[in-house]
Amino acid sequence: MPASIHETAILDSSAKIGADVNIGPFSIIGPDVHVGDGCNIGPRTSINWTQLGAGCHVGANTIVGGDPQIYNWEPVESWVKVGAGSVINELTVIHRSMYKGGATSIGEKCYIMAQCHVGHDCILGKDVTVTTLAGLSGHIEIGDYATIGGAAGIHQFVRIGAMAMIGGMSRLTQDIPPYFTVAGAPPKSYGLNTYALKKHGVPPEEVVALKKVYRILARSSLTAEDAISRIEQEFAGSLMVKNLVEFIKNAKRGLVL
Asked: Which residues pair with 175 in a beta bridge?
């Protein structure tokens, strides 16, 4: 089907609109925007410098591809890239990269609730949930299937591992390992996100291994270096544990354990 574009919407001449797209009243589709097939764009949205994959939804009064919030930033060509099937709900703001040729990246099937902020150069994996009023500063990385609770605030350059769960109103300034459940201000770990592990088909034996590893990391008196050494020796055959260890080794801001 051809696109359905409300008569009050404004489209830049460089915008590319796919088939079966709906664009609501008073929306502005600016330069270098590519809207994939089957997308739904709500009323009063502003979309610039953005590539929307097929089947995305952008809610009312949302800004995607706005300029990064940086003092004295000099405009360059940069983008927001949103994977297929992602939902960006109303009053959310997502800023494009600060770097020439760079992109703020939202993975496939992400669900971003109302009134969230995703800062420049953030990278979200697939099927990430960001809950209402959460604020992501620039350069944050979030792994696949992670969930960010409502009104959580996350510092620049923080990494959050795959399948992690962040509680509402948390304040994060350090990295969160994969599979962890973390909440608070300052944050503390409260075990593994076993719901996500089960939901995404992690084998029971891997879950058992991860629970043992969690106790070594978060509940023993070992130093981080000694804990990692012990884990590498005892759980060498576990891919999930290997991923967790690699994440920890690459931490640059410290860890919530």
From this structure: 255
Q: How many domains does the chain have?
A: 2
Which residue, chain included where needed, has tokens 């009063």?
A: 44
In a domain, 134, yes or no: yes
pLDDT digits (tens, 9 = 90+) for 173-216: 999 999 999 999 999 999 999 999 999 999 999 999 999 999 99
DSSP-derived secondary structure for 77-133:
--EEEE-TT-EE-TT-EEEPPSSTT-EEEE-TT-EE-TT-EE-TT-EE-TT-EE-TT
Q: Locate tokens 């920890």: which residue? A: 248
Task: Provide the residue range defining the domain that includes 236.
Answer: 201-249
Number of Cβ within a 10 Å radius of residue 111 = 16
* 60 shares its domain with 181: yes
The torsion angles phi and psi of 120, rounded to 5 degrees, stand at -60, 140
CA atoms within 13 A on the CB side of 99: 8
Q: What is the largest CA-CA distance in the chain?
A: 66
Q: Which residues contact 83 (CB under 8 A, 6 or more apart)?
A: 53, 106, 107, 108, 109, 110, 126
What does pTM read for this prediction?
A: 0.97
Place of tokens 């604020």: 135
Are 113 and 13 in the same domain?
A: yes
CB atoms within 10 A of CB 198: 11
